[in-house]
Amino acid sequence: MTQPYALVATLHDPNGASLPFLDRHDVRAALGWYPFVSVAATVVTDAGVTHRLQDLGVQVVEGGTTGVARRAALAATPPEFASSNIDFDRWLHWLLAWPDELESLAARIEHVVTRQQAAPWCVLLGRTARAFATHPQVQRLPETATNRTLSLVAGKSLDAVSGAVWLSPEGRDLVLASSVEESAATDLEWAGLMLRQDPARLLGLRFEGLEWETPDFHAAAIADAGGLERWVQEAFDTPEMWTSRLQLAAASVSALQRVLAG
Q1: Higher confidence at residue 85 or residue 2?
Q2: Which candidate in 53, 102, 108, 186 could, as Cys together with 67 as Cys, close a disulfide (CB 3.0–4.6 Å)?
Q3: Domains and CATH numbers, the chain
């Protein structure tokens, strides 16, 4: 065991795309890094995936929309544990592409914690400039605006929308007591809860391994489209996707303002 905190994840995998990864020795070994692993899976997630996770000792609970699932997975963890909260597919990519960086996360968090006068309750696990640039434009542009809003409020550069955040037990309790957002707007809602309580408790780090993970799980679709670039155009550069991403950005900054005004 190399990580002193729980792994808390969400999963939506109706096609079982993650199942082959769960047969890998390195993935099985990495799940053993943590004293507790909780995954909130949507009801349409492939049953083979949830059963395999349970066989590997993972606590699987029912998820829903992103915000609901994040809280469900967090609530399933013992309250004494700090937690690394992340989308499960993103965790898989981080492990397979940047394993040393992921395994050293605990040491990096500890280094940051020991240098602060006030121990952080929340560390936003953000992306380096290179990792951020791997995402499609439909994500980068709205997320740039979202992060800019939070950074202006916090007075420091932060990336809150990578789908990854570390919480101390105090941060966990604050989130579970006050979070109400049902969508991924929890990204800014959770950060806002920390800022409202004590701005010194919110920090951010940047990682290479939080690059775009989605292509890992769509190899067949990418091949059918004739390559990654064409697939991105067909699946992501659409009016519907732009609308969805812009609406999420608006909901996120609205959640931040609601929390700070409360």
Answers
A1: 85
A2: 186
A3: 6-261 (3.90.550.10)
